[in-house]
Specification:
Blueprint lengths: L12 E4 L3 E7 L2 E6 L2 E4 L2 E6 L3 H15 L8 E3 L7 H4 L2 H4 L3 E5 L2 E2 L2 E8 L2 H10 L1 E2 L2 E2 L9 E7 L2 E2 L7 E2 L2 H8 L1 H24 L2 E14 L4 H6 L7 E6 L8 E5 L15 H9 L13 H19 L6
Antiparallel strand pairs: 1-2, 2-3, 3-7, 4-5, 6-7, 8-15, 9-12, 9-13, 9-15, 10-11, 13-14, 15-16, 15-17
Helix pairs in contact: 1-9, 5-6, 8-9
Length: 313
Amino acid sequence: MANEVPALGGLPHVLSGKVRDLYDAGDDRLFFVASDRISAFDHVLASTIPDKGKVLTQISLFWFDHLREIVPNHLITASIDSYPPALRAYRDQLQGRSMLVRRARMVPVECVARGYLSGSGWKDYQRDGAVCGIKLPAGLRESDRLPEPIFTPAAKNHTGHDENIGFDAVVAAVGAPLAEHLRELTLRIYAKASEHAESKGLILADTKFEFGFVPGSDLHGTLAAHGQAADGDVLVLADEVLTPDSSRYWLASGYAPGGAQPSFDKQFVRDYLLSIRWNQQPPAPALPDEVVAQTRAKYLQAFELLTGQPLKV
């Protein structure tokens, strides 16, 4: 089965998402393994996309490094030689798709930045001319660039699609000081990531981040480099970062506002499922080899464009 969770050296299994499996690595650490599972319409499909988990992990590692001057992150190491001994026997299984991270107390909000009008933002705009309570100019088209990037948070929903919420709801959930900081930090990260993406011929239309708190003493060196105090808990960037699964990337050369744009994630998968008129109820179908190959190629293309490197397989 595509969604079976493997045992790993006696580490307790904490939970599994649609793609990642999480294990308790002790000492306030978690072990992340990104599978090759793929989901669409909130269901994990019967097929996998070879190397997808490696793409997601290695893109996140690239961005953790690229953004380190803006925000610390939860990564401890992605080197198998530095993993606990019980995990090293699984080198072939874990190489390129795993991370040892600090266990963070997660902020209960998805921090979304949008620079273009697409996806659920486009649907909200069509309905009321605003996204997450932010009024936008009249007459915008689908995929238009916004006058400036906006912070459009979402409530985490583990049973379905995340729900767009207004900034006031973030304040109610976490307090005004943290809400303001999350908005400012999200837009700063988006600006830096967009600049890099543009230099590689890509448009970063929107993306979502997750943040959490870890003890400051665990990040003493990093915090000192950022001029931040090492006392108390510290906000860090966590989970996956700026991957094709959490972000909407478009090729700049083909950008044509006024409709949906080809993206780098599950386009071929969604198109196929719509073509066969799947009722979006279990059991989820398998994918033809051609759709699997096209989807894998898109993930690899995104990785190579963003990083300038071939995937470490």
